[in-house]
Specification:
Strand order of the largest sheet: 3-2-1-4-5-7-6
Shape: globular
Low-confidence stretches: none
Bound molecules: S-adenosylmethionine
Number of helices: 7
Helix content: 25-40%
CATH superfamily of the domain at 1-7 and 37-107 and 116-142 and 163-190: Vaccinia Virus protein VP39
Order of helices and strands: HHEHEHEEHEHHEE
Largest sheet: 7 strands, mixed
CATH topology of the domain at 1-7 and 37-107 and 116-142 and 163-190: Rossmann fold
């Protein structure tokens, strides 16, 4: 577990929503609206932070679905819980590279704005493959291009200064090695979306 990252995100938790105020939530709605989730799905929101994705995920999975909000930083999770309550949502603290979940647990994994922060990205991809059900899918999403995102992290420096999104070939290789197939990466000016599935 990255204690430095845990401390960093715990410290940022109270100001996180103010820092992100400019982020267009309509864009997340638009992106996730096209990704064809099924209601009733069991979804893991990896690196949930203050739970920015939770209202949207609740809407998508509906009352018969289940969401697990998962994060390294307990202060982030406390805020997520305070804002979103516990109906259909469980809150669990941990590291996605060594998660506490059983094999074949989730239909969908969401990683919004968090993949670059995972210290061992290849281990996180393998862990995601292990905990997804056959036919399950991971969605890695950022509201900027890879180039812009990496430049932003480099400019922040410190704990997150080297938290970078690898290039397309490296990501493809990493997810293939982890056991995913049908891997698709869209790296556009205003969004980065990787979707990858586990075969049935
Ligand atoms: C940039 S924030 C994004 C939060 C949220 N997904 C959003 O879109 O606002 C990244 C989050 O990932 C969490 N995180 C970092 N490394 C992690 C890991 N190895 N396992 C689980 N969560 C992690 C951090 O604690 C932080 O809350």
């Amino acid at each position: 577990m990255s204690e430095k990252h845990r401390a960093y995100f715990n410290e940022k938790a109270v100001i996180w929503d103010q820092m992100m105020e400019h982020k267009p939530h309509e864009k997340l709605q638009e992106i996730f609206g096209t990704l064809e989730f099924e209601s009733g799905s069991t979804v893991l929101d990896v690196g949930t932070g203050t739970g920015v994705m939770l209202p949207l995920l609740k809407e998508i999975v509906g009352p018969s679905g289940k969401i697990i909000a998962f994060d390294l930083a307990e202060e982030m999770l406390s805020l997520a819980k305070m804002k979103n309550g516990e109906e259909n949502i469980d809150y669990i603290q941990g590291d996605i590279t060594v998660s506490p979940f059983k094999d074949n647990t989730f239909d969908v994994l969401i990683c919004n704005s968090c993949f670059p922060h995972f210290l061992d990205q290849a281990a996180s991809a393998s862990e995601m493959a292990r905990i997804l059900k056959p036919g399950g899918r991971v969605i890695i999403c950022h509201l900027s291009s890879r180039e812009e995102l990496n430049a932003m992290h480099r400019s922040l420096g410190g704990v997150v200064g080297n938290d970078l999104l690898p290039d397309k070939n490296e990501m493809m290789f990493m997810f293939e090695q982890a056991g995913f197939n049908v891997i698709n990466i869209d790296d556009l000016d205003d969004r980065y979306i990787l979707t990858a599935s586990i075969s049935i």
